[in-house]
Design brief:
This protein has helices spanning 4-37, 44-82, 281-284, 363-366, and strands spanning 91-106, 135-140, 145-155, 158-167, 186-195, 199-206, 236-250, 253-264, 289-299, 308-323, 326-340, 345-355, 383-396, 399-410, 418-430, 436-449, 452-466. With 467 residues, it is α+β, with helices and mostly antiparallel strands. It has a 16-stranded antiparallel beta barrel with strand order 1-3-4-5-6-7-8-9-10-11-12-13-14-15-16-17. Strand 3 (145-155) and strand 4 (158-167) form a beta hairpin. Helix 1 (4-37) packs antiparallel against helix 2. The chain is globular, with a radius of gyration of 31 Å.
Length: 467
């Protein structure tokens, strides 16, 4: 239902247009006959024909103007009835992407829908049926995303911005034989920020501060691409503070330097050896994980791909209590880059060296500890070096293409099950018209064990729409 205020807005927008159209018509009627009379060679019949044609033309123009005004009035009415408003009149924006992923996976990936690494080889025969197949075909809507963003000015002297994103990648429990037939909603990220001219305070659940980038992909949204192959992505509750310490220019290019700090929830995914209450070993350390990062930004503030760049260097340190009162330290140092090149080409890259950081999202090739020695309950904390890189090009206003690779290598001295894991992909995303999108991606994965290397191939066709 359109409110009285909405009607007033519509009338106020339409009345000037109607008045302008009528004035234009009247002025034309007054001016044109004068021009006809100034032609001494035109007979009276021709003069009358000209006036008649002119009247018909003006009538047609007036009819078209009235039709345009009616269309505008209709559009304003639709806008008034469909606009999203909050009770307090804050600015709210909804977004989403409904995505259907059809996939063919060849090889024993850890998942047919979104493989991250390849499983260890099986024995020569498994049970009475022998070895299982290594190919799988499926269709899923679990990578559908829904989000909302809220903003308001003049909050404690700054701007308040908040957003939330959810998907349906939590799986389903309706029936054991149909685990994904009824996808469950899963909270991905949520944060609230207060932004001042130089300082930003954020609280919420986000990617690690030291690894905030994710590769472009329609095939890997439920778990970001290159996870377990160099990408630390896990969404972790945290408190962040960022401050700009320098703003200037190098010639005509604006430059800024920022410092960031974060305190993260200390969850590491393992428990104290004598833990009676199922408390995480990170929580038993009784201290949050800490991260810091320095970043430099340059280029236009409008965010154009051809003129924006950011590089950063970060550190992570956490603790977990595994036995007695002693603590084991988790740590990492990471670097990242996002650089817009010329002609619509952009570069995304991250790399890190870490120790026992599987909880950050696949560090150590999703391994926290290596194989324990004889008589020991836990192995050594796994150290690894990893990174990924992706190059994207806007080859057409409606077509984005790109290629990328990621690689993680665990330290063999820590006796990990998975020694190396690599993933390379090529993708093509087509947006023919709003809101339709189509994506095609092929991914090749290779995982190295002490017994040899295993490989898998994943082909994914994504179709859907977004708003």
């Amino acid at each position: 239902m359109i409110s009285l205020q909405d009607r007033r807005v519509s009338k106020s927008c339409i009345q000037p247009l109607r008045t302008a159209a009528l004035l234009l018509c009247v002025s034309a009627l007054v001016a044109m006959p004068g021009r006809a009379q100034r032609s001494p060679t035109s007979p009276d019949s021709a003069r009358r024909d000209s006036v008649a044609v002119l009247a018909d033309s003006l009538g047609a123009r007036l009819a078209r103007a009235e039709a345009a005004i009616a269309l505008l009035q209709q559009q304003l009415a639709v806008e008034a009835t469909t606009a999203v408003r909050t009770r307090s009149r804050l600015q709210l924006e909804l977004s989403g992407r409904v995505l259907t992923n059809s996939y063919l996976t060849s090889g024993r990936g850890n998942s047919a829908e979104l493989p991250l690494f390849v499983r260890e080889p099986l024995a020569a025969a498994v049970g009475a049926g022998g070895r299982p197949g290594t190919r799988a075909v499926g269709v899923s809507l679990r990578q559908t995303l829904v989000g909302a963003a809220l903003s308001v000015d003049s909050v404690l002297g700054g701007t308040f911005v908040a957003d939330i994103d959810v998907d349906f990648f939590a799986g389903g429990t309706a029936a054991a034989a149909e685990p994904f037939a009824f996808p469950q909603v899963r909270l991905r990220t949520v944060n609230a920020q207060l932004e001042w001219s130089r300082t930003t305070l954020m609280v919420g659940s986000e990617s690690p501060l030291i690894s905030g980038l994710n590769p472009v992909s329609l095939a890997a949204a439920g778990t970001p691409g290159f996870a377990v192959a160099g990408n630390l992505w896990n969404w972790i509750p945290q408190l962040r503070l960022s401050h700009t310490i320098f703003r200037g220019a190098a010639g005509s290019t604006p430059v800024a330097v920022r410092l960031h700090g974060a305190a993260l929830a200390p969850v590491v995914g393992v428990r104290h050896l004598g833990e009676p209450d199922a408390i995480d070993a990170g929580e038993r350390s009784a201290r949050p994980a800490m991260e810091g990062r320095a970043s430099m930004h340059w280029g236009a503030a409008d965010g154009a791909n051809d003129a924006r760049a950011e590089v950063g260097l970060g550190v992570h340190r956490g603790w977990m209590r595994l036995s007695g009162d002693s603590s084991t330290v988790t740590r990492a140092i990471a670097a990242d880059a996002r650089i817009g090149l010329s002609h619509g080409v952009s570069l995304l890259a991250e790399g890190y060296a870490g120790r026992a950081i599987a909880s950050l999202g696949g560090g150590g090739i999703a391994q926290t500890f290596g194989t324990p020695a004889a008589g020991a309950l836990l192995g050594a904390p796994i150290r690894d070096i990893a990174g990924w890189l992706q190059l994207n090009a806007q080859v057409h206003p409606t077509v984005l293409s790109g290629v990328g690779c990621g690689l993680a290598a665990a330290n063999a001295r820590d006796l990990p099950r998975r020694l190396r894991n690599g993933s390379c992909e090529a993708h093509l995303i087509w947006r023919p018209t709003q809101p339709v999108l189509v994506g095609l991606e092929v991914r090749r994965i290779g995982t190295v064990y002490s017994t040899g290397a295993e490989r898998a191939t994943h082909l994914n066709l994504a179709m859907g729409f977004e708003w």
